[in-house]
UniProtKB/TrEMBL annotation:
Gene3D superfamilies: 3.30.230.10, 3.30.70.240, Elongation Factor G (Translational Gtpase), domain 3, P-loop containing nucleotide triphosphate hydrolases, Translation factors, Yeast translation eEF2 (G' domain). It comes from the Eukaryota. One of its GO terms (molecular function) is GTP binding. Residues 498-512, 980-995 have a biased composition (Basic and acidic residues). The gene is LOC113051948. This is Elongation factor-like 1. The keyword GTP-binding applies.
Length: 1179
């Protein structure tokens, strides 16, 4: 039975907020730091482990809240919580004030059996302010291990959020009480939803409602209600979309069953399925206990459970009744002494305002606003708190406020008790999440091997038994200095070691004295002269050798100290991983079904095994407990825990799956919200440092989950990052940690795309193009076509006919602009297109690829959407005639087969495999046409940038090959050696397949007429590429720019200056709305990536820091101006001429890209200029 005593509280700032036990006679408080032994013991209790991450928008207070939780374990002082930013261990994180990486720490928390906490008793409910006394729960506490991961809120580092979310079972969503739901809040809620982890809510910075907005307690209550509605609206939209998807799948199944039984009466159910589905557990509500109201910087936070328990004792109302009515439209009727409904309609003060908010508002009024010392002392006395006299005398009222509130309502206790109560333990992982983690790409869970499916039980059991298979997922690799590793740290000496060293020093001293005495003895003087002369020389040589050896050892030690080590950020899902254990490392492309066929049955890691693609064997070098800035070495880690693994840098690039079972599938790849878009070319200042740069970029690529490192055809080393802040961090890491050399980075390489459009109706000065102007444009195009080589013919409709150099083949191609919807559809379905191409490749090699039924349905939907968007006579039947997508066989461009009489296998053959269709023949050199199209779409004619939204229709393809292919094929068959005999039928069939593929490729090579122009297949590739380029140039060409979506929160007084910065950088405002209840405006705009560099700094400078933008890559947009347009009329010269007030934006971008790539740029260059002289005066 829980015993409750009302006592004066001891000062809580020095405590760890573990639930203490108080007794009236002998006050005994169990407050101690969480020791390593305690954490190791708790790691074995799976039901008492909570893996969680803190997610929020930038500057909403994640790291400050994490500081408060860390201070509860005595790791840092509670006075430094919010100022130290303990989990921001990088120097640039401290300077910028934002988190840039995910950091983990393990905390120990003890709670009581009941609702424990520092609660308050009210003297009188109807007083203007009411004061409360401490209620302490005395009970045997349950101990929990909290594996906490703090994640970044800046959009550039959202990949770090993905790595954190994958390892957790729950998340703390932090929302600023003033700013509310921001763009990144929606993103992190969606990430938590996609990973099937349970969120809880912390409404932080409540003090801003009092100090900044100066709201009354009633206004604050209304504001908080609206904020909760906003958060729940985001969750509701995610839930609705999921239910509707499931409903659509059921409808599809019902339709298929209806077609089988068409005679039955068909009744359509119009309900969307939302009514039947229970979504009550998804939403945040204070009465459910999954919401904490807090001000982390002031050290206080609470759940309404705490107030409900306290008032139930004081007022004699049942706890359950108070819990339901404390949040909502209820008020206290003083006369009837009842809780009534309808506070808003009757103009009464809501119960939450009266019993909770008024107390907090009065505290701030007395301490911060009025600084009434008498009132403060009275409050402290009535609350039973102990505040140090230096805090009472401090000039900053926030210090006193923090000292009072951190004892009155400690935020760490409120948050950690909510986490332990509301978030699931690792053993409660859902079957849906397990199947989602195990199903990669086109594979469905049902199609996985039986041994692989049996591993689902190991996931769900989360067993740490000896027989349980070890399954570990590594979400990222992070770099650690050698001196930060536990084995390299200097540890304090024990008393035994000190005494041993003292004895050794005494012995050395005695030996040295004995040696000196023997050297000075007369016997040594009477010895021969040769020996006395040799001894100094030999001593000098020995000293020199010792000095050299010492110098070498010091140099080796310095090199080892400066070496970067990588630690894998991981979680154990099953089994126990031990130091020195041999495990399989499975890459993202590992296929368990192929491995199980190749490996002997019942094999283990210790056996000598054949090499399997994307699988390697290694030994676990070391295991670490993540403690923020420090690491603690462990011998073993059971299932359900987050850990660091050392010595994996040779086997894991960014992420991987570790297991002792070869049947384990690789986990689903991480879902990154940010797209790497910003590129820079990097080179060393001293060319001799190039090997160091190459090594440094390899290390950077491994250490950053989102950064990409490329080597272009020109030999440039290119670094691709998510944004400007991310780029700066990567360059700093390269200079100071990984390469440790001086480097020079180019100006950001801006990506563009090239496209064609329909003939425009307006000119550059927004005037209609008349007939005369259209005729002039046609004549100009004809003049350009006249410059084309003889082998290229362009007709009036834009059909380009091109002949190969040896006159043996002719290709006719037409370029057609794709509708915007189709381009967007192709961009969104890259993975589906890649799966279709993979199926076609397998079919070409007479193999089969098993595709998930859901993916087949998605491909069918994709095909239907394509057909619906490609309407009109010119697109009739176009979807069935798609030859290929490009570039890289999955891009947003289409190659159409409109050749009469040529019917090749469809790109949609994965959908037609169940139907009995005639076997379509593939013409020889079919692949050469596709390769030419891929090359043409990879680099366009304007500035060698990839094409986008262009359809190339091949309408003619004639070949005249002198030697018949049949003769060449027969020649190849005759020249082949005799086929050896095979006992095994499957072995014979495999050899037959490889021979057929080889003969097919040899037929193409044999058909190649090797003349002075080279192989025929190469000529055809070049001809197709050039035909596509000329067809592209026969249409109006445009550049496409990458666009950022920009969301800015600003006050009314800086709106004008913010708009000036946007317009200067070619930005366009889409929406402007005022945030209800505040003086803040939310502006949504689009901004070209090319103009975004320095935008955030400039807007902060111009607005004195009152506006801060968030830039997220959004889409590609066609630049309206023609890059080839030349002004002719006087008005056009006025706008775009040599002395123009506005430049041709597309021409500026095109010339900049061509200049960077070393291509020809047509521009006027003044050479040998002379100074202008005037008639009036010779100068």
């Amino acid at each position: 039975m829980t015993q409750i005593n009302v006592l004066r509280m001891t000062r809580a700032t020095g405590t760890t907020h573990f639930c203490a036990s108080w007794t009236r006679g002998n006050i005994k408080v169990k407050m101690r730091d969480a020791s390593l032994e305690k954490i190791i013991a708790l790691q074995k209790k799976t039901s008492h482990i909570r893996n969680l991450c803190i997610l929020a928008h930038v500057d909403h207070g994640k790291t400050t809240l994490a500081d408060s939780l860390v201070a509860s374990n005595g790791i840092i002082s509670s006075r430094l919580a919010g100022k130290l930013r303990y989990l921001d261990s990088r120097e640039d994180e401290q300077i910028r004030g934002i988190t840039m990486k995910s950091s983990g720490i393990s905390l120990h928390y003890t709670t009581g059996n009941g609702h424990c906490g520092l609660l308050l008793l009210q003297h009188h409910v109807l007083l203007m302010y009411s004061w409360l006394r401490a209620v302490v729960v005395i009970a045997g506490g349950n101990e929990y291990l909290i594996n906490l991961i703090d994640s970044p809120g800046h959009v550039d580092f959202s990949s770090e959020v993905s790595t954190a979310v994958r390892l957790c079972d729950g998340a703390i969503i932090v929302v600023d009480a003033v700013e509310g739901v921001c763009p990144q809040t929606q993103v992190v809620l969606r990430q938590a939803w996609l990973e099937n982890i349970r969120p809880v809510l912390v409404i932080n910075k409540m003090d801003r409602l009092i100090v900044e907005l100066k709201l009354t307690s009633q206004e604050a209550f209304t504001h908080l209600q609206k904020l909760l509605e906003q958060v729940n609206a985001v969750t509701g939209s995610l839930f609705t979309s999921k239910v509707l998807e499931e409903r659509a799948e059921k409808d599809a199944e019902a339709q298929s069953s209806c077609t089988e039984n068409s005679s039955a009466d068909q009744v359509y159910d119009w309900s969307a399925g939302l009514e039947e589905t229970d979504d009550s557990d998804l939403y945040f509500s204070p009465d459910r206990g999954n919401v904490v109201f807090a001000s982390a910087i002031d050290g206080w936070g609470f759940r309404i459970h705490q107030f409900a328990e306290m008032y139930s004792q004081k007022m004699g109302i049942r706890f359950s009744v108070l819990l339901k009515t404390l949040w909502g439209d209820f008020y206290l009727n003083a006369k009837a002494k009842k809780i009534m409904k309808g506070a808003q309609s009757k103009g009464k003060k809501a119960l939450f305002v009266q019993l909770v908010l008024d107390n907090i508002w009065n505290m701030y009024d007395a301490v911060v606003t009025r600084r009434d010392k008498e009132k403060v002392e009275k409050m402290v006395t009535s609350l039973g708190l102990k505040v140090m006299s230096r805090d009472l005398r401090h000039s900053d009222p926030k210090v006193l406020l923090s000292a009072i509130c951190s004892q009155w309502l400690p935020v760490a206790q409120a948050v950690l008790s909510m986490v332990c109560e509301k978030l699931p333990c690792p053993a409660e992982i859902s079957a849906e999440r397990v199947e989602k983690l195990m199903s990669v790409g086109a594979r469905r869970f049902d199609s996985l091997p039986e041994q692989t499916q049996e591993l689902k039980k190991a996931f769900l059991d989360c067993s740490a038994g000896e027989t349980a298979p070890v399954i570990v997922f590594v979400s990222k690799m992070f770099a650690v200095d050698s001196k930060a590793l536990p084995q390299n740290k200097q540890r304090p000496l024990t008393q035994e070691e000190i005494s041993q060293r003292r004895e050794l020093a005494r012995q050395r001293h005695a030996e040295r004295q004995a040696a000196n005495q023997s050297a000075d003895s007369p016997r040594s003087a009477d010895a021969g002269g040769t020996s006395t002369q040799a001894s100094p020389a030999s001593g000098a040589v020995t000293d020199a050798l010792c000095a050299q050896t010492e110098a070498l050892s010091v140099k080796a030690a310095v090199e080892e100290e400066n070496k970067e080590h990588f630690v894998a950020f991981a979680r154990v899902y099953s089994g126990v991983i031990r130091k020195g254990q041999k495990v399989f490392v499975l890459g993202p492309k590992y296929n368990p079904s192929l491995a199980l066929r190749a490996l002997p049955e019942g094999c283990s890691v210790a056996d000598v095994l054949p090499s399997i693609p994307h699988m390697s064997c290694c030994t676990v070098d070391s295991l670490y407990l993540l403690m923020g800035r420090e690491l603690e070495e462990l011998d073993e880690v059971p299932s359900g825990n987050v850990l660091g693994i050392g010595g994996m840098e040779e086997f894991i690039l960014k992420s991987a799956t570790i297991s002792t079972s070869p049947a384990c599938p690789p986990f689903t790849p991480l879902n990154f919200e940010a797209t790497p878009i910003v590129r820079v070319a990097v080179e060393p200042k001293h060319p001799s440092d190039m090997p160091k740069l190459v090594r440094g970029m390899r290390l950077l690529n491994q250490a950053d989950p989102c950064a990409e490192v490329l080597i272009q055809e020109t030999g440039e080393h290119v670094l691709v990052t998510a944004g400007e802040v991310h780029l700066q961090r990567c360059l700093d890491d390269l200079r100071e940690r990984f390469a440790k050399i001086e480097i020079s980075a180019s100006e950001p390489i801006i990506p563009f795309r090239e496209t064609v459009i329909r003939p425009p109706k307006m000119d550059m000065v927004n005037e209609d193009l008349g007939k005369q102007q259209k005729v002039a444009v046609i004549h100009q195009l004809k003049e350009e076509h006249m410059k084309n080589p003889e082998s290229v013919q362009v007709d009036s409709t834009g059909l380009v006919t091109l002949t190969t150099s040896n006159k043996m083949a002719t290709v006719g191609v037409r370029a057609i602009p794709l509708p915007e919807e189709v381009t967007r559809l192709l961009e969104d379905n890259v993975e589906l297109i890649r799966t279709m191409e993979q199926f076609s490749l397998f079919a070409w090699e007479d193999k089969t690829l098993d595709i998930n039924q859901k993916i087949l349905e998605n491909i069918q939907d994709f095909k239907v959407k394509l057909e619906s968007n490609l309407q009109g006579h010119k697109w009739r039947g176009a979807v069935e005639h798609i030859w290929a997508f490009g570039p890289r066989r999955c891009g947003p461009n289409i190659l159409l087969n409109n050749i009469e009489g040529y019917r090749r296998p469809s790109i949609w053959q994965c959908l037609e495999r169940e139907k009995e269709t005639e076997r379509a023949e593939i013409r020889d050199f079919d692949n050469s046409i596709v390769s030419g199209f891929q090359l043409a779409t990879l680099s366009g004619p304007m500035c060698e940038e990839p094409l986008m939204g262009v359809c190339f229709s091949v309408e003619t393809w004639d070949m005249k090959i002198s030697t018949p292919l049949a003769q060449r094929d027969s020649f190849d068959e005759d020249s082949q050696p005799a086929e050896p005999k095979y006992d095994d039928q499957s072995q014979r069939s495999d050899i037959h397949e490889t021979n057929s593929n080889r003969s097919r490729s040899r037929a193409e090579a044999a058909g190649s007429s090797v003349d002075c122009y080279g192989p025929f297949s190469g000529q055809l590739i070049a001809a197709m590429k050039e035909a596509c380029r000329y067809a592209f140039q026969a249409r109006p060409q445009r550049l496409m720019a990458a666009m950022y979506t920009c969301e800015i929160m600003a006050t009314a007084e800086v709106l004008g200056r913010m708009y000036a910065v946007l317009s200067k950088r070619e930005g366009r405002v889409l929406q402007e709305e005022m945030k209800e209840g505040t003086d803040m405006f939310i502006i949504k705009a689009v901004l070209p990536v090319a103009e975004s560099f320095g935008f955030a700094d400039e807007i902060r400078k111009r607005t004195s820091g009152l506006a801060s933008p968030q830039l997220v890559f959004s889409h590609w947009e066609v630049i309206g101006s023609d890059p080839f347009w030349v002004p002719t009329t006087e008005e056009e010269y006025l706008h775009f001429g040599e002395k123009a007030d506005s430049a041709n934006q597309a021409l500026k971008y095109r010339n900049a890209v061509r200049r960077r790539k070393g291509l020809y740029v047509e521009e006027k260059i003044v050479e040998h200029a002379e100074k202008q002289r005037t008639l009036g005066k010779n100068k």
